[in-house]
Design brief:
With 715 residues, the protein is an alpha+beta fold. The protein has five domains: 118 residues; 191 residues, no CATH class; 93 residues, no CATH class; 121 residues, no CATH class; 107 residues, no CATH class. The protein has 25 helices and 23 strands. The strands form six sheets. A seven-stranded antiparallel β-sheet has the order 20-19-23-9-18-22-21. Strands 10-17-15-12 form a four-stranded antiparallel β-sheet. Strands 14-13-11-16 form a four-stranded antiparallel β-sheet, with no helix packed on it. Helix 9 crosses helix 13. The longest helix has 33 residues. It is elongated. The chain starts with 10 loop residues before the first helix and ends with a helix. The relative contact order is 0.06.
């Protein structure tokens, strides 16, 4: 309230105005925790606005026949409690004009009340679209007539027998998801499948969201509402269908509003459950890939976003109605600020906040949880955007951080200042703010924080332990069976290459002819040096052929247990030059190798305190006398497919190079030496944790910014 006096100094300018609700408005009465709240909807824009019982006591008297002076005087004569002040009517009229909910007789006086507020409100809406390009709506179609012609859809969503069937399907889907989760999770981690089905996933997402939005629209129509807008919303430039279901806010019964909000989530869960059943029953192929995509979109993403009440999607409004707390997010933040002001600044009690004391714990918990989640989303999207859009992404990140963090922070500080001024606590506010800034600076710039680097490594055999074919040709039957202990130089298998003996015969014939020509030349002529050079070159080529013929017998380079690849054991009869056909296992001849990015490699070279290795199952840990060597140069090729996303690793593979295991960005190899390491299996995945000296959090943040900036320059 602007003043505690009954009268207002500008009342004489407004007293003759005759307000009435606009013709395009309609009203509804809701009850929240026993307290009535009145909803006024602007049917032209679709927006709904809530007003307290006290405000409605004034608004309901706006009939266009009585002026403000008569309305106020009659309420005073009737001793309406609480007694309305002229300032209350002024503020209420100002709010209703800005919301475009009333019309005034004597419109020339309207500027006295609102001035340019209405135009400012419209300009604010335009600016919100400009400064938030990550969320843009594009209306496409009015589906109201379609919903009116297809009322059978309401039966499909609300019939008790069908609801029971849907519940049974979801239960079966959940049971299958739990039982098959390890295999399904491996499918999710198979980046080859995700990459090949990227277009399929992009097509699946809008399809499922269309059913989601259709469920909202059908239930709105089921209980007498109207849906006049269907379109596309571009979230981070990705098109997602949406419907304008604001008519649901006018439903008097709480369960109807909650049902409309939950309908989309329920529809996606049913689709995801059906897809899970298909995924379990189907063989690998296109049908199973489609089912997996539906489970990902309809099940996992639905629960993380639409089913998450911490963001303003469906579950937020369902929870708001379940707790009977409209504007849950704003009221939670107001309660958090009020309690903070009471504790730190000594604010006086606020009757409006004290009425919410029975749900204070819920509001505080929600405010903290939603803030933490919002920060995670801001950081996550910032990292994502800088990765895919180096230049434009940085601009969007700056805009996103400004609108998501800085602007709310400034608004909170302004609100705190105004309230502290009202409570005559300006000094305490400045002191608390200064102390908070000092504490943040202390935490960021002085307090040491743990610093670690984590990456994955594989247990790999040494290069000389790998059995490779030196020449392309036909494989003979292995001379030694798998599991045999072999010694250095022992022949393991032979390769037949019919081209090499023929080439040797051709070279021998050429050499005989050249030597015959050489013997027929007498005296010192110019032909002798040429013939000698040709003979020498032919002899060198013959020696190379002899060496290649000797390499047709594949011999053991080290001693150990012979292991053939499955193809050799199954009778493969052909091998290409350099192809790996087996392995000689010797647990003493291993290497533990991992790969990191260039920035992480620099960090490992600068400072390393301790190194710890943990096996994938968590049963084995090594942390004694581990040495770490970072190779000096960066490469664009990995030594094993298991380091890529295709094999469950961390690096994306460059699909443009089909032969090599190429990476999109340079990586640096890291080799670890672990005393008394027990080899359980080759290609076992190990998790490496490197501890660095503790440093302030500001250093961590600066290193992240520096890394992103350097990545931007390299891109």
């Amino acid at each position: 309230m602007s003043t505690t006096h009954l009268y207002h100094r500008d009342w004489h300018l407004l007293a003759q105005l005759k307000p009435r609700l606009s013709a395009q408005t309609r009203t509804a009465r809701h009850v929240y925790r026993g307290e009535p709240t009145f909803i006024i909807q602007d049917q032209y824009s679709g927006r709904c606005h809530r007003f307290s019982r006290y405000a409605w006591e004034i608004i309901r008297r706006f009939d266009g026949d009585r002026d403000l002076q008569s309305i106020w005087q009659r309420m005073v004569d009737q001793k309406v409690q609480p007694l309305p002040r002229q300032s209350d009517l002024v503020d209420l009229i100002d709010q209703l004009i800005r919301l475009e909910l009333i019309e005034l007789e004597g419109a020339e006086r309207q500027g006295v009340v609102a001035g340019q507020e209405a135009r400012k409100a419209r300009w604010k809406q335009v600016m919100q679209k400009v400064v938030m390009p990550l969320s843009i709506k594009l209306p496409i179609w009015d589906p109201d007539s379609f919903l009116s012609r297809n009322r059978w859809l309401e039966t499909v969503l609300t019939h008790p027998l069908l609801l029971s069937a849907y519940l049974l399907i979801v239960l079966v889907g959940v049971v299958l998801a739990i039982g098959w989760w390890p295999e399904f999770q491996n499918n999710l981690l198979d980046a080859a499948v995700l990459r090949e089905n990227l277009i399929l996933l992009v097509l699946t997402y809008p399809f499922i969201k269309a059913f989601h939005e259709l469920a909202h629209a059908v239930l709105v129509r089921r209980w007498g509402g109207h849906v006049h807008e269907v379109g596309l919303m571009f979230l981070v430039f990705f098109p997602v269908p949406y419907v304008d279901a604001t008519d649901a806010s006018m439903f008097v019964k709480r369960y109807q509003r909650m049902a409309v909000g939950f309908a989309g989530i329920a529809t996606e869960l049913v689709l995801a459950s059906l897809a899970m059943i298909v995924w379990v029953a189907a063989e690998p192929g296109i049908l199973r890939a489609i089912a997996a995509n539906i489970v990902i979109v309809g099940g996992i993403s639905s629960l993380l976003f639409n089913g998450n009440p911490l963001v303003r999607f469906d579950a937020y409004y369902v929870l708001s109605d379940a707790w009977e707390i409209p504007n849950l997010g704003r009221r939670a933040n107001d309660m958090f600020g009020y309690q903070l002001g009471r504790a730190l600044l000594g604010w006086q009690r606020d009757p409006a906040q004290e009425q919410m004391v029975n749900v204070c714990g819920r509001l505080l918990g929600y405010a903290i949880a939603s803030f933490a989640y919002r920060m995670i989303i801001v950081v996550g999207i910032s990292i994502y955007l800088t990765g895919i859009l180096p230049l434009f992404g940085l601009l969007l990140v700056g805009l996103f951080v400004t609108m998501g963090i800085l602007v709310p922070l400034v608004k909170s500080l302004r609100s705190g200042w105004r309230k502290s001024s009202f409570h005559l606590m300006k000094g305490r506010f400045v002191l608390a703010l200064t102390g908070s800034v000092g504490l943040v600076v202390l935490l960021l710039g002085w307090m040491p924080m743990p610093s670690t680097t984590n990456f994955e490594a594989l247990v790999l055999p040494r290069d000389d332990s790998i059995v490779r074919v030196a020449e392309t040709g036909q494989l003979s039957k292995p001379r030694l069976a798998a599991g045999t202990q072999v010694s250095v130089g022992q022949t393991l298998i032979s390769v037949t290459n019919s081209d090499l003996p023929i080439r040797k015969k051709v070279l021998m014939a050429r050499l005989d002819r050249y030597e015959s020509q050489r013997q027929g030349v007498y005296g010192a002529t110019a032909e002798l040096p040429k013939l000698d050079a040709v003979i020498a070159a032919t002899q060198a080529e013959q020696q190379r052929i002899d060496q290649r013929l000797e390499q047709l017998d594949v011999r053991a380079a080290v001693a150990g247990e012979l292991q053939w690849h499955d193809g050799v054991m199954q009778g493969a009869d052909y091998a290409s030059r350099g192809e790996q056909i087996g392995l000689i296992r010797n647990d003493k001849l291993i290497q533990i190798r991992g790969y990191v990015t260039e920035s992480v490699a620099d960090r490992l070279r600068q400072s390393t305190e301790t190194v710890e290795l943990r096996s994938g199952d968590g049963r084995h840990t090594y942390n004694q006398d581990i040495s770490l060597q970072v190779l000096p140069s960066a490469v664009n090729e990995l030594s094993d497919i298991a380091f890529t996303l295709d094999g469950g690793g961390q690096f994306a593979r460059d699909g443009r190079d089909g032969e090599r295991i190429a990476t999109l960005r340079p990586v640096v190899a890291v080799v670890l030496s672990v005393p008394d390491f027990a080899v359980r299996a080759f290609k076992e995945r190990l998790y490496v944790r490197v501890s660095h000296p503790q440093e302030p959090l500001a250093n961590h943040i600066w290193r992240f910014i520096e890394t992103q900036f350097l990545s931007f320059l390299k891109a």
